[in-house]
Structures are given as C-alpha cells and as structure tokens.
Amino acid sequence: MQKKQSPEKNNASWKPVLRYILCDFIAALLSWGALFTFRKLVLEPSQAFTQSSIHTITNDPNFWLGLAIVPLGWLALYTIQGTYRNVLRKARLKELLDTALASLIGSVVLFFLLLIDDNVGPSRNHYLSFLFLLAVHFSLTYMLRLLLTSQTVHRVHTRQIGFPTLLIGSGNKAYHTYLDIENQETYSGNLFVGYINVNEELRTLDSSLDKIMPCLGSLDDLRTLVEKHNIEEVIIAVEDEEKERINDILLHLNYCADLIIKLTPDARDLIIGSVKQDSIFHSPFIVINNRLMAEWQYSVKRLADIFLSLLAMIILSPVYLVTALIVKCTSPGPVFYAQERVGYHGRPFRMHKFRSMYVDAEQSGPALSKDDDPRITPFGRFMRKVRLDEIPQFYNVLKGTMSIVGPRPERQFYIDQIVKRAPEYLLLQRVKPGITSWGQVKYGYASNVDEMVERLRYDLLYLDNMSLTTDLKIMVYTGQIILQGRGK
Q1: What is the pLDDT of residues 138-153, one digit of tens each?
Q2: Nearest Cα residue to 191 out of 219, 212, 215, 163
Q3: Whether residues 94 and 55 fall in one domain
Q4: Chain centroid to CA 90: how far?
C-alpha cells in the first residue's frame, strides 16, 4: 500500500495566499515610496539631497495618502487578474509574464490618475516617472514572488506538498499511468488517495492497482468521493475498449468542483496536437480546462453582478414597493415566494421571486406553468410578461448564489427527468445560474420537460461562447423583451 503523506490544504488554505498578498503589498509600498523620492529628489532640480528634502517628502500628505491607497489598488488589480487563485500551482515563467502584464496595466492607470497632472518640469519627466514606476514595481514584485514560487516548487518536488489526486481506471493503463507519474524525474505533486473502478472484470483480471492504493468505489460515488477527500486533480486512464465511458466520466466531473482533469493520450491525440505540456519532465496528458473564461473575466463578471444588482435594487425600490402592494392586495398570501433550486456545482439554494401564483398552487406536486395556467393570478400574468416577478433575484445575485446572466436554475425534480434524456444538462452546473440567459431570451419559460430539453441547446451554446461580451448582448436582448412585453 502506498505510504500516505499529509499534504498542506492547498487551495483551501489561506496562509499561502496571505504570503503572496503580503509580499505584493510590501512591493507596492516600496515602489510608491521610491517613485515619490525619485520625483522629488531627481526630477525637481531645485531639490538637493539633504535632511530637509527628506522631511519635505515625509511631510507631504500625498506621500502618505499614496502609501495608504496605491497598494490597495494594486492588490485589487491582482485579485481581478486571478493572481491569488491556485498559488501553490504557480509556474515561474507564467508568473513572470503575468507580473509584467499587471505591472504595465497598473503603471498606466497610476500615470493617468495621479502622475500626468503633476508639475515636474518638462514632459520628458513624466515619461521618466512612468518608466521608473514600471521598472521598480515590476522588479520588486517579481523578485518577492519568485522567492515564494521557488520555495513552493521546491516543496512540491521534495514531496512536502501534495495535491490529493483520484485515478479513474481499472486495468493495465491505469496501473502504468500511476507508475509513470511516481517515477518521473521531478515529482509533480500528485498524491494518490485511491482509484475508482470503471470495469469490475478488468479489476478482477488485474489486481495490480489494489496492491498500491485502495479502490474507493465506482463512478456513482464520484461526486461524494471528490468532496470527501478534497480531491484537486483527477486522472482518467481507461483502456481503449472503455473509451466510450469518458463522456460519462466527464459529465460526472464537470459539475463536481474546479478540478484539474487529465486524460491519458493515445497516438491519435499526439498526432492532432491535443497534448499540451507545462513541463518537459512530467508525463504527457490531455488537460481538460474547466474554466470557461479568463480569470480576469470571472472577476469582472462578479464585480458587475454586485454593482448592477445594487444599482437595480436602489433604482427599482419604488417598483419593489408598488409591486409588493399590488401582489398583497390582489390575492391572499405572502408577497414573496422562495423555492429551492439547484445551482453552481449542483448545490441547492433558495431562489426568491414575487409570488405570481395563488397559494398552494402546487399542492398536488411540482408542475410547470403553461399558457392560460389557472394557477397564475391576473397580476402574476402581467408580471411574467415583463419579467417583474424576477427582480427579487437581484438579492440572490448579491449573495453570490446567482449571476445576472447564466442558465436558469431548475428544481431537482425536473433535473432528474431532463438528465435521463439529455445527460449533458449537468454541464450547466459548471457556472452560476442566472436571472436571464441565452435560453430564456431565445425560448422563454418552458412549460414541460420537452421544452426544457429544447431550451437546453441554447444554454449549452452559452457555455461554448461564454464571455463578458456575450453577457452584455443577452442583457440588451432581455431589456428589449421587457420593454416590448414579449416574455413567455
């Protein structure tokens, strides 16, 4: 049996992230202080390097204001860039490029916000200030990051840090994949906690895997095992005759968590160039990217969700009040209706709406609304036409359980029926559900499971084309539907 190590809690641990934040903060402080000193003592010819000139710097309120605000701005930029995500998996070359890009963007922003209007003599001095800030900030930031990253890489290679890894496969390929990883020249950090059986017959014929790691279960147990063992990486190594199982495996994995998923390649994959290597010493794999957008786009999307939701709730506060009064006066029962839906990574949450149906409308069990549905109140019919019943969901967006744009969340009762006919529905749980979606714009509300399956293709298209631009287009089209009262 493989000797188990106790890996540091990688992505869930705050300590490695805090070290990066602290180093970045120190670098930003030093670079701002260096820039201020450079401008005061070098670019302003009337100043000489004396004790009084140092007092001039420290007595300047702009110096202290910059020390208080500028580093926070840099940290915000790094957060948007995704710098503090997966800090224990950083590569030094990528760190170099990311730091250079962030330093350039941040220096340009600082130049136009704080430096361009300063009186420092000829225009040449402005360019010197910019280049000085860029060079000093990049050098200090990358030097400190390089120390942290090199230390982390060393700890990985010396097996002080391991990433909990699950192997999927039962036969000879899975066994040799494990041996290749364990015997590679530099340790990749894969700490195998066990494997999942995909073919009991192969396992019976070849019990090699059982001698080195435990069998944790079958594909039906996959999601539970990922959560139980805090799995960060999954390696799929199935036999050639089991290739048809890969789609099923990926459907199970795509909504489990932000996993790193790797597949063992065959000759065809090598020919068409599917195998991408990040290290010349590690075993070759096809890496499945679970991130549908660049990290900075995820950050901007979340910031836009927060800003637009707050703005909408403030501007629409009179509408909230009037709608609530009408709902209360036109039918007995509560103003709001909360229903459990399934969201990001298959987690249930409570979605809030203005009540558009009579109380106990589903006392006979879950049922989808239809045209001329007698369960819908007269005012509820109007609210659905203009999407007025949906506006309480801005509260869900603020909580982070929903986004403004994303596939509409469904109840587990209907998900079970949809998955039987279209297993790819589970792919939608890779993203947060939304108030509006591509499917909602193109199709509207679904009145039966057939229509849900038909609407699914539009939401899958959204996943393939997910971007800030796509979100903006969907919001614009949603606005048109609301103004024209074409809601279905």
Answers
A1: 999 999 999 999 999 8
A2: 163
A3: yes
A4: 17
